[in-house]
Specification:
With 572 residues, this protein is α/β, with parallel strands linked by helices. The protein has 14 helices and 17 strands. The chain is globular.
């Protein structure tokens, strides 16, 4: 009798638990719908992120129950004694439909893959550690060989960090100070060239390039020569409203002001481009309000959702890419990756305005999309937006595929192609709002010299920096050292207790290939224009995260590597 009573209690307790779960699931669904339908951006709030898995589970259970009952009733008549086959088939159909209809989002599926909600597993392939310090490889480039300049002004970036609010973006003028950004660029150019006027800086820039790349002694810019400005718009679109990172409109405006007002280049002979994306509206309006004849080059024709040029009342100034064959590769087999924009092929000069940004991150607690393929998205990988067949390069860059240790890197060919990278007169990294992944929200940098607050995320402290060099290898070496330094003691604790920044394996391999292609660790024989590629610049790691000294800082007279100059502006 006692055993029967105990069994009955257990059954009742089990039924009660199930009813509680159903009630909680139904309540979570109602709460989620009430909050999110009026304002979809609330779906990213922590409370909604907590409610969503419960609501999803309830929907899946309910859908499965109804579908299974209907299926069993129908199949039962057909299958007779094979009712369990009907049940299994119905459940499988329900799961497939839920995935197909995206009732189960990728983030939920990821949680199952990462241990059924037991927490994020350790990252695999994100354990890169820099090699020895101050051991330069390659030949330094520049008016002052190997010089890299960084300016920083925390007053330039005022965004409150409300990443999930699409009415308060970092790229608005009220959040990013146009004039302070312009000052940063001016100081950077003068310190890079050793001048005291912007006009003289540009005169040195063009004369240095023409003498060393075109064999034209004391030859500056001449009318009719076209300047292409390559920016990074990996998260851009014709209706962009989110806060994911792209080139800053204020940085690009500062560059166009310099090219037109200081370098004396006609507006019509300047175009801004990312050939793999379409230009987002605020970028267009920011430039056109001052420079109506500056052109934009994008993936396709102008779209109705894009703003019109206010001076013309139509989409004058937006051009679609005209793809032509323009680049060869030293290894590998490529088809569409050989195609570049005709407009870039015909340009005389190129400004490589990339971002201070990593390319890969394995966790998705804010961002979405795959983890990426390689370590960094800086000057070299910026040209992934200069070719049509970018996906063809992914296997060669992916550290889990062909991008193994000391492997061939197509980034070397992109950087030195006569029709593409070899036209570069200046390399810059926009570090106002930096990123940890190809699809990313801006990052706070907690370590020196930035010392940003990282918690809560919603705060107005940002990297707010700009870097520039004539030496693409040196610039990316410094950028990589900065990003690695910011990965230390920097764990996100609110959700999953994982590192906020991780640097993927083989991060500096492509820099070693670029610095000394004659003795490339991969053994590749790099060829462009029928000739072996010579050193593209100098590579080394700094001595320490606090002192940030390279070989020319330590020994100005005999050092043969990088010289890093840092100029803080504003109140620090």
């Amino acid at each position: 009798m006692k055993e029967e009573t105990s069994t009955t209690k257990k059954k009742l307790f089990g039924i009660f638990n199930k009813l509680i779960l159903i009630a909680v699931g139904f309540g979570a669904l109602v709460w989620f719908l009430i909050r999110v339908i009026p304002k979809p951006s609330r779906a990213t709030y922590p409370c909604q992120r907590a409610a969503f898995p419960l609501a999803s589970a309830f929907v899946i259970w309910l859908t499965g129950l109804i579908g299974s009952l209907a299926g069993i009733k129908y199949l039962g008549k057909r299958l007779g004694n094979y009712r369990w086959v009907a049940i299994g088939s119905s459940a499988m159909v329900v799961v497939v439909l839920c995935v197909w209809l995206q009732i189960i989002p990728s983030s939920i599926l990821d949680s199952f893959a990462l241990g059924s909600g037991d927490g994020y597993q350790p990252a695999v392939g994100f354990n890169w550690i820099p090699g020895p310090s101050n051991q330069p490889i390659g030949d330094a480039k520049g008016v002052y060989p190997g010089r890299v300049v960084m300016t920083r002004n925390p007053e330039a970036t005022k965004w409150a960090g409300r990443w999930n609010v699409n009415e308060d973006q970092w790229w608005l003028d009220e959040n990013t100070d146009t004039e302070k950004v312009a000052e940063m660029l001016s100081v950077t150019l003068q310190k890079l060239t050793g001048t005291k006027k912007d006009k003289k800086a540009w005169d040195k820039i063009f004369k240095y390039y023409n003498e060393n790349s075109r064999g034209l002694t004391k030859r500056g810019y001449e009318p009719g020569e076209v300047v292409a400005v390559k920016i990074n718009l990996n998260n851009s679109g014709v209706s962009k409203v989110d806060n994911q990172s792209d080139a800053s409109p204020q940085m690009v405006l500062a560059m166009i002001r310099q090219l037109v007002n200081e370098a004396g280049i006609p507006q019509k002979d300047i175009f801004i481009y990312d050939a793999r994306r379409q230009i987002y509206p605020y970028m267009l309006t920011t430039i056109w309000r001052e420079f109506k004849d500056v052109r934009f080059l994008q993936w396709g024709e102008a779209q109705d959702a894009q703003p019109v040029n206010p001076a013309y009342g139509d989409h004058t100034g937006i051009e679609a890419v005209d793809w032509v064959e323009g680049i060869s590769y030293s290894a590998g087999k490529f088809n569409e990756a050989k195609l570049i924009p005709r407009q870039v092929k015909e340009a005389t000069y190129l400004v490589n305005f990339a971002m201070l940004k990593l390319h890969s991150y394995p966790y998705n607690y804010m961002e979405d999309g795959d983890e990426g393929q390689t370590a960094v998205t800086m000057s070299a990988k910026n040209h992934a937006g200069s070719i049509k067949g970018t996906p063809e390069l992914h296997d060669y860059l992916d550290t889990k595929k062909l991008g193994t240790k000391n492997a061939y890197s197509p980034l070397v060919d992109l950087a030195t192609s006569p029709n593409l990278g070899a036209k570069t007169i200046l390399y810059l990294l926009d570090g106002l709002y930096c990123g940890r992944k190809w699809r990313t929200y801006p990052l706070h940098f907690p370590n020196p010299p930035f010392n940003n607050k990282v918690e809560p995320y919603e705060n107005p402290e940002w990297p707010a920096c700009l870097l520039a060099s004539f030496d693409c290898v040196a610039l990316q070496s410094v950028g990589l050292d900065i990003m690695y330094a910011q990965s230390k003691n920097n764990n996100e604790t609110a959700y999953h207790d994982v590192p906020r920044i991780l640097v993927r394996d083989n991060a500096d391999d492509f820099l070693r290939e670029m610095a000394d292609p004659d003795h490339a660790p991969s053994g590749t024989r790099y060829i462009q224009g029928g000739k072996p590629i010579e050193s593209l610049g100098v590579f080394e790691h700094w001595d320490d995260d606090l002192t940030m000294r390279y070989s020319r800082n330590l020994d100005p007279k005999n050092g043969r590597g990088i010289e890093f100059l840092y100029f803080p502006l504003g109140e620090n």
